[in-house]
């Protein structure tokens, strides 16, 4: 199927598009790799819930061409399978992209897209550091290594923290949920502005950098700027880590550690819970409210070693901590089965902490706190 080529794709661009696989594009959901030809440049954009990639490449041979193509990410597989360094790309029937090398070509339907070509979401940076990209990529790969001898487990691996400090960039991992050890990697930075500490999606960042380096090995003097800031999405701002090198940028959301490790499991436990009068409302990614027939229970994730789920409820309000109430609370706590009761700010509370290693017991723990509330709330309220 003949097509008039409208531009070319360089080896550098092929490497970057291959790296976009780290964003896990879903073509069936409308995700696309957007190419915009405008002003003598090729502009690339890909974004998913996992991040945003953008790049700009000068090509004065484009002249006055003004064109937007929403390309399938399947082109990345083709680009890495051919022998040409600069295949051409054209259009046929106004709805298909044709990428051709010397001996091979592929024709793939364009992704349906309505309206103007998308623009990268704007990003503001509060802290940044500049260092060689090869230094960061190699250190990141080393920091991701697990302590030898760890057996496979369903317990999530620990987060990796990125720290921008005066004159340095650090990567920190705390393995104490598994074995009594921590690791801290420190890289000298050429320039730094302000300071920041955030948890990063190290797997996705490592995949992105490895993909580029596997096609075009990083040169030792190529600089990478790491920034911590916010991206302005249509739904509101979101904290991100921004990586900028030469003509490209990658923005990856900052990891919400507790939500990333345990949010899905807690949600699954609670959405499968069906006692009488049950109603679930998720407040944040790490806190839920469970409305039961006789009480309201709050479930929240707490950081620790191990991480914990706190299940709590207010038994009564307007309570004073009388001597009789405190004595009864002490007796009940001494005979408790994991729950604890106390009085604070004129409110009578009952709670228990469940290690996330026992997250399968969450429904039972909610039921246990509900039972405590039903059994003791009238008695204790009367004493206070």
SSE order and pairing:
Layout: E1 4-8, H1 11-19, E2 33-38, E3 41-48, E4 51-58, E5 67-71, H2 74-79, E6 88-92, E7 96-100, E8 105-109, E9 123-132, H3 133-143, E10 160-165, E11 168-174, E12 182-188, E13 191-193, E14 196-200, H4 202-215, E15 223-233, E16 236-245, E17 248-253, H5 257-271, E18 279-284, E19 287-291, E20 296-302, E21 308-317, H6 323-334, E22 340-344, E23 347-355, H7 362-383
Helix pairs in contact: 1-4
Strand order of the largest sheet: 5-2-3-4-17-16-15-9-13
Q: Roughly how many Å apart are the termini?
A: 85 Å
Shape descriptor:
elongated
Determine the number of helices (DSSP H or I, runs of at least 4 residues): 7
The total strand number stands at: 23
Percent of residues in helices comes to: 10-25%
Instruction: List low-pLDDT spans.
Output: none
Q: State the secondary-structure class.
A: alpha+beta
Rg calculated over all Cα atoms: 27 Å
Q: Beta-strand level of the residues, as a percent range?
A: 35-45%
Query: Could you tell me the mean pLDDT?
Result: 91
Order of helices and strands: EHEEEEHEEEEHEEEEEHEEEHEEEEHEEH
Describe the sheet with the most strands.
9 strands, antiparallel
Description:
The strands form four sheets. Strands 5-2-3-4-17-16-15-9-13 form a nine-stranded antiparallel beta sheet. The protein has a six-stranded antiparallel beta sheet with strand order 18-19-20-21-23-22. A four-stranded antiparallel beta sheet has the order 1-6-7-8. α1 (11-19) packs antiparallel against α4 (202-215). By secondary structure, the chain is of the alpha+beta class. The protein has helices spanning 11-19, 74-79, 133-143, 202-215, 257-271, 323-334, 362-383, and strands spanning 4-8, 33-38, 41-48, 51-58, 67-71, 88-92, 96-100, 105-109, 123-132, 160-165, 168-174, 182-188, 191-193, 196-200, 223-233, 236-245, 248-253, 279-284, 287-291, 296-302, 308-317, 340-344, 347-355.
């Amino acid at each position: 199927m003949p097509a008039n080529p409208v531009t070319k794709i360089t080896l550098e661009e092929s490497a970057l598009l291959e790296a976009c696989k780290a964003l896990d594009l879903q073509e069936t959901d409308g995700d696309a790799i957007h190419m915009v030809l405008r002003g003598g440049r090729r502009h690339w954009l890909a974004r998913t819930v996992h991040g945003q990639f953008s790049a700009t490449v000068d090509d004065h041979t484009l002249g006055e061409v003004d064109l937007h193509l929403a390309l399938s990410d399947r082109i990345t597989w083709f680009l890495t399978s051919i022998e040409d360094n600069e295949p051409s790309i054209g259009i046929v029937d106004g709805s298909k992209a044709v990428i051709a090398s010397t001996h091979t070509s592929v024709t793939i339907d364009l992704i349906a897209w309505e309206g103007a070509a998308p623009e990268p979401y704007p990003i503001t940076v509060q802290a940044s550091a500049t260092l060689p990209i090869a230094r960061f990529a190699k250190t990141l790969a080393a920091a991701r290594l697990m302590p030898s001898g760890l057996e496979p487990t369903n317990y999530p691996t620990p987060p990796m923290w990125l720290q921008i400090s005066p004159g340095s960039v650090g990567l920190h991992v705390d393995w104490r949920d598994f074995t009594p050890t921590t690791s801290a990697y420190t890289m000298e930075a050429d320039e730094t502005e302000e300071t920041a500490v955030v948890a990063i999606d190290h797997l996705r960042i490592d995949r992105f950098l490895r993909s580029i380096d596997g096609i075009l090995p990083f040169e030792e003097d190529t600089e990478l700027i790491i920034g911590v800031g916010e991206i302005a999405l249509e739904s509101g701002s979101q904290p991100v880590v921004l990586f900028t090198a030469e003509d490209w940028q990658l923005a990856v959301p900052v990891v919400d550690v507790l939500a990333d490790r345990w949010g899905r499991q807690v949600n699954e436990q609670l959405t499968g819970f069906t006692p009488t009068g049950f109603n679930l409302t998720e407040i944040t990614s790490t806190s839920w409210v469970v409305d039961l027939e006789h009480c309201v229970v709050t479930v929240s994730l707490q950081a620790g070693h191990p991480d914990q789920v706190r299940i709590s409820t207010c038994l009564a309000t307007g309570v004073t901590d009388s001597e009789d109430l405190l004595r009864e609370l002490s007796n009940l706590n001494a005979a408790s089965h994991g729950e604890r009761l106390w009085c604070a700010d004129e409110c009578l509370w009952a709670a228990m902490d469940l290690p996330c290693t026992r997250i399968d017991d969450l429904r039972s723990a909610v039921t246990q706190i509900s039972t405590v509330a039903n059994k003791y709330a009238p008695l204790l309220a009367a004493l206070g």
